[in-house]
Structures are given as structure tokens and as C-alpha cells.
Amino acid sequence: MPRSGQDYLESLRDGRAVWLDGELVKDVTEHPAFRNTARSVAALYDMACEPGRRDILTVRPEGADRSVLRAYHVPRTAAELVERRKAFKTWSEASFGFLGRSPDYMAAGTAGFVSAPDIFAGEGFDGRDNLAALYRRASEGSLYQAFTITNPQIDRTRAASEQEEDDLYVRVVKERDDGIVVRGAKMIGTGAVFGDEVVVGTIEPLPRQDVEYALTFSVPLDSPGLKFISRTSYEAHARSVFDNPLSSRFDENDALLVCDDVFVPWERVLTYRDVDTTFRMWWFTPAYNNFVHQAATRFWTKLEFLTGLAILLTRANNTYALPPVQMQLGRLMGWLNIAKSMVVAAETMYERVAGEGSAVHLNREIASAHRAMAGDLYPKVLAELKMLAGGGLIQLPASGYDLTHPELGPLVAKYVRSPGTPAEQRIKLLKLAWDALGSEFASRHEQYERFYHGAPHVYLPGILRDGDPDLLAAFTQSCLDGYRLEDLPGGGGTDALS
Ligand SMILES: Cc1cc2nc3c(=O)[nH]c(=O)nc-3n(C[C@H](O)[C@H](O)[C@H](O)COP(=O)(O)OP(=O)(O)OC[C@H]3O[C@@H](n4cnc5c(N)ncnc54)[C@H](O)[C@@H]3O)c2cc1C
Asked: Could you tell me which Pfam families the record lists for this protein (predicted)?
């Protein structure tokens, strides 16, 4: 059985260096900027231990004496892919799709690495044994792995080694008998402050000259010299669960990772001074594709939640039955069904890593198209809901306390209501809607859906690579080849045109 939520929370009290507003946070499980979200993650672990959901969320691998989180399991049949999706779905429903980087995300990525371990046999460094050890450690310990695999923006026109200073991006500064010392920064550690380990690497291709920056390793959060500088906390600014129902509980945090001369033992290094392997481990194993399986399932859940929200809002406003509103709701429902169908289609048209009995993964073309679809669609979904909600989203009392105030309470009850929806119910609904659509938390989610899987100039050409452009060009060419100038009525030649 995986560890309990309580065991997970206790593991976070390890002296990790999390910084917020100039303060070194002593304990993320108690700090008002982090504690509720830590508890939401702990609740996921507890779900995996519950008799009713254990079979969905965990699996006992063949020959193993204990169960692991299903996200860590390597699927070898289409049915196992579907089982994994049911696990993703169950966890994503617990946060209504708002915890993007729940522990199953990187777990699925690590299962992707071990599905094609030979990729880790680099030219000068063989990371296969270290990968196997990471997989054992993480799956048997049900670890929450975060990852930072993007270099800070600084200057996107220059290679890592051409930046103004050498140590802006994580690089190796010292080699020792027992390991290496690394220095520099990476962005963005989503959920990292709640993690057990962080995988540090680079998903973008690096030029040959950046060999010092071409490495991947996984270290515990309390590694000396490792620092996380948190963005503003939405959880800390939430008044209450009633007033900020999502941001008060599902603020998964994003942090800049700084390695201030962090020692990494050799056994924690996965790729080393190798630009090819450092890149290929993400794209030539099913790791990235497995990320999409979790993310696309979560996106489907999020659209279920938002479509449900649109239905409740329009019912509360008594606009639900109006024909234009029915049209807008139909559009939302259609988008939700597209998101769902893409997951199911990508599973049905699964692919196999080369080799008999090997791992299966989502269909690459569909997974890759999903990344683009979701990033483009999400802002449209939000815009559609805002149009449906109208000014009620803004004309809300500052907090639920106004409802209980002796003088204000009756006024709010009288004026903030609609037929069949008393004030408390309406305010509760609209505050949930604002948190999902208009708050700072909501804006961060819009940016997340657009960028968590990379920038468009990277992933859109990837769709072209995953597809078969020659086949499509040949198909259209076959249309062109089906007629000739000579076939013009009255015969060919330019005379026929005059
Ligand atoms: C909320 C959130 C959470 C995230 N979580 C994580 C995480 O947990 N782990 C992690 O590793 N990363 C994470 N990321 C980072 C994410 O991986 C990056 O945002 C993503 O890779 C894009 O890189 P960038 O933001 O530096 O954008 P850039 O590469 O700087 O691109 C930004 C824009 O600049 C323009 N541009 C830049 N370069 C080019 C070019 N060569 N050609 C054309 N146009 C260009 C484009 O308009 C592009 O949209 C997260 C991001 C967000 C927003």
C-alpha cells in the first residue's frame, strides 16, 4: 500500500529551503501560504489507501510484494492504459482539475523513462542503473517528484554558455570522486515545494557548446544549497474556503529553483555532459507522452467542472433556457466531448515501444495535437463562461461575513438573489465562479494551460514532426494529378482559355 497522507505530510518537515516574501518558511505543512494545499495532496495519498479506491489508484506489479501508485506502473496492454487513465481521472476529480502537477504527473514520466531505459546509455556516462534505482525508490516510496526542466528566460536568443554569466542556468561546476557540484537556476517548479524530490534537467535541445549544462539529476528537497523562491501565494490571500474555494485549497505553487553549489552524488545523476541523451530522455522515451495522458485526463475533468459551472450559473440567473444561452452551453459541452474523445482515441490507437512485451503509450499524433488544442481552447472556455456569468461575478459582497452581519445580512439576502436561488447559495456559486474564471489563481491557470507543456514555437512544429506531412501532401497532390490543362472543355492549350 502507498504511504498515508499523514506520512506524506510528515515527510515534508525536513528543513527544505522554501522562500516566500523574504521569509524562510519553516514548515510548509503549517504555513498559511501552503498548508491547505499540502493537505489536499495528502488527501490524494489517503484516497489511494481507501479500500473503495485502492484498486483504481494502485496496482501490484507482477512479481512484486507490494502495490505501487498506478501512475508508476508501466502499462503493457491497452487495458492497462485505460486503467491508468481511471487513476488519473479519480485524482483529478478530487481537485476538479486544478492540481495540474499532482504526484501522478511525474510518476507517469518516470514510468516512461523506464519503458525505454537504453536511451540513458549515453556516450560518456551510463545512467541506466541510476534510473532503475530512481524508479525503485520513487515507486516503492510513492514519492511526489517535481521537475524543473526549463532554463530561466533571461535571454532566449543566446545559448546557455553565451548568457551574460556562466551560472545563470544549472551547470556542473565541480566534479568529485563521489559526485558533482551544480550551480544555477531552473524554472518553474510547480508543486516543487510539496515534493519529495526534484528532477532537474533540460527538455529543450541544447547546442554542443552547452555540454556543461547538459545534465539531469534527481535530488531530495532538503539537499543543502537547494533553494525554492515561491511566487505570491494565492492560498495566503484567500479569506476562507467559502470566499475562495479553489485558491484556498488547490494553489499548487510555482517556484524558481536555485542551486547554490548543490552536491549531487553520482548515483543520482541520470545524464551527464551529454546534449543528446539529456534531450532524448524526454522525447525518445514515452515520458512526455505519459505526461500528456495525465494532463489530458485532468483537462477533461476541468472542462467537466467548468461546463457544470456554466449550467449552474445560467440556471441561477434564469437564463438557461434562452436559445442563445443553449447555444453557448452546447458549444461548451461540445468542447468537453472533444477533450474526452481525444483521450479515448489516443488510448485506442495506442503505440508500443519497440520490442515484444514492451510498454505501450498514447498515440503520438493525437497526444501531440491535444497539447495544442488544450492551450488554445482554455482561454475560449473561460471567455464563454464570463459572457454567461455577466456582472454578478463582480457584484459580490467582499466576504461571506456580510451575510451574517445583522444590518447587511438582510440587505444582501434581498438584493443578491434570483428566483429559486437564495443569496447564500448565489454568492457561494459566484465566488466559486470568480475563483475559477477571474481571480489571480484563475489567470495563473490560463497561463498554465498555455505553457506548462512548453511554448507554441516548440510544440506546434512538434505536431508536424509527429504527423506524416508527406502522406498528406501526396493525398492533395493526387487531387492535382487527377486533371490537366488539356482536359478543359473544347480541348487543351491556351487557346481554350480565351
Ligand atoms: C504556470 C506554469 C507552470 C509551469 N510548470 C513547470 C514545471 O513544473 N516544470 C518546468 O520545467 N517548467 C514549467 N513551466 C515552464 C514551462 O515549461 C515554460 O513556460 C515553457 O517551456 C515555455 O518556456 P518560456 O516560458 O520560457 O517561454 P519562452 O520560450 O520564453 O517563449 C515565450 C514567448 O516568446 C516567444 N518566443 C521565444 N522564443 C522564440 C523562438 N525561438 N521562436 C519564436 N518565438 C519565440 C513566443 O511568443 C513565446 O510564446 C511552467 C510554466 C507555467 C506558465
From this structure: HpaB, HpaB_N
